[in-house]
Amino acid sequence: MNRTKGAIRMRARALIHVAVFLSVGALATSALAASADDFKMALAKAEAANKQAADIKNQWTTTGQAIAAAKKAADAGKFDEAVAHAQQAEALANGSVAQAKEQEKLWPDAVIR
Amino acid sequence: MLRKVLFAVALVAGTVQPLLADNAVNPQADFKAFRKYFTERFPKLPLNDFVNGPYSMDEGLRKQWQAKEEFPPYDFALDKGKEMFAKPFKNGKTYADCFPNKGIGVRQMYPMFDAKSGEVITLDIAINECRQVNGEAPLDYLKDDMASLTAYMAFTSRGKPMDIKILNDPRALAAYKKGEEYFYTRRGQFNMSCASCHVQNPGNHIRTEMLAPALGIMNALPIYRSEWGSMGSTSRRLTTCNSQIRGVPLKPEAEEYRDVEYFLSYMANGLPISGPGARP
Amino acid sequence: MASTIRVRAIASGDTTEVQSLIQHPMDSGFVKDAKGEVIPPHHIEVVQFEHGGKTVFTALWGPAVSKDPYLKFSFKGGKKGDDLKVSWVDNKGASDSLTAKIQ
Fold first, then answer.
1. Residue B105: what are its φ and ψ, rounded to 5°?
2. Strand-by-strand arrangement of the C15-22 sheet
3. Confidence (pTM)
């Protein structure tokens, strides 16, 4: 009937912990759960970067494979996975573009003279 | 005052000069340096032997190859190529009507720079041009028929020295330079250039394969690869090289491929045609 | 139709060295095509070489032998001008044979 101040405080603390845990948990799960829209955005970025690579004739085979994997995962509703693949594809495509730009300057150093 | 101006001009010219020299194309100088690099790296190897690729690099491989050459795996493709070469087109003409010397013993002149179109023409392109002029459908650059036909034409040139002309035409020099650029540029996710394997590592292994030297590497084409179990054209080899380093290949006989063939064939001038070749 | 068999036999002293190249797909039955479907096994099962009415060499082949197989062996006997008969049978029952002169 009469709760001690300590007991009330402990209960309050426990409730606060639960609230914090739940809100953190909610944040965490919303950060992990990618949506179809998230995938569309990630894919668009990957495809744009890969097109850049195509324009300078320096695409990597693994970029296309990552895009295909992204689409396949998205078709199965696995948007987290799909976004991860799409982001990987974007990174690969950007790598291939950077490689071409770098090599334009560096190739003469390799020539046997 | 004049001296100051002249000095200023000389200073500018002095700074511009080296830039021009770096960008100037000098195939003859490149040729000498290229040859020197390989002959110094393999001092005991007779010059003409470079065209045998991995077999010039390893005695065990060479013995197996010599045994097979008595009954080479490309025999069937060669016979098919001979038949194809002799068979007239629907209009009665033959390949002999398109090529100098009736198409016999001419492979070593390709690729050649065509002044009219301003393009490098490889043997495979010349074959399809011949077909087109005579109302026939072109052959697929990646498939067996082109490989068989070029195998026969290479066979008729066996032993003849590679004879590529870099014309004193800025477009030919530009094509040569683009070929050189392609050869030394890193590409693919594995970040390798043609030179990574064929200049830096001839005689070394990449996985289980022994690498051929770049000097004379075009001379054995087209090749029967045991890996493929069939004859493969130059386009087949170049496109698969690209994908093997995780680079998306260009279209067969794309400008870059023709240019690199031009560059590499010129580097092999004087070395004998050894095609059609057999490779692991 | 041209024979699938090429053979060269050279007599030297009391030995004859034989080389042959046979055109055959030698599909193992383990390889899939571009569509992902298994290419059915289609390979030579028996190769035989006969000289003077006797079998001088028999090979029992299977999935492990590659396309367009090359074969080399020597046998005692045989002289220039003799006949050497080569024949093969595959798992589909197809066959071919060729008689060549020892050189």
1. 70, 35
2. C5-12, C15-22, C70-76
3. 0.85
Catalytic annotation present for B241:
yes
Statement to judge: residues A44 and A86 lie in one domain: yes
Which among A54, A57, A107 has the least Cβ separation from residue B181? A107
Buried b (16+ CB within 10 A) or exposed e, A44-60: ebbbebbebbbeeebbb
Domain spanning B27-279: CATH 2.40.50.140: no
The tally of domains found in chain A comes to 2
pLDDT band at A3 (very low <50, low <70, confident <90, very high): low
pLDDT of residue B16: 35
Q: Do A74 and A106 sit in the same domain of this protein?
A: yes
Q: What CATH number should be reported for the domain holding residue C48?
A: 2.60.40.10
Closest partner residue to C70 among B73, B79, B230, by Cβ? B73
Same domain, A44 and A95: yes
* Chain B touched by C85 (CB under 8 Å): no
C8 with B71: Cβ contact below 8 A = yes
Tell if the CB–CB gap between B67 and C21 is shorter than 8 Å.
Answer: no
Query: In B, which residues are within 8 Å of A54 by CB distance?
Result: 248
Q: How many angstroms separate the CA of residue C86 from the nearest CA in chain B?
A: 16
Task: Examine the domain organization and report whether A24 and A42 are in the same domain.
Answer: no
How does residue B71 score in pLDDT terms, banded at 50, 70 and 90?
confident
Give the residue extent of every domain in chain B: 27-279
Q: How far is A108 from chain B (nearest CA, A)?
A: 7
Range of the domain at A2: 1-32
- Do A44 and A92 share a domain, yes or no? yes
Task: Tell me, yes or no, if C34 comes closer than 8 A to chain B by beta carbon.
Answer: no
Residue whose pair of structure tokens reads 């065209």 in the numeric block = B51
Q: How far apart are CA B99 and CA B168, in angstroms?
A: 23
Q: Calculate the dihedral angle through the C-alpha atoms of B250, B183, B112, A54, rounding to the nearest 10 degrees.
A: 20
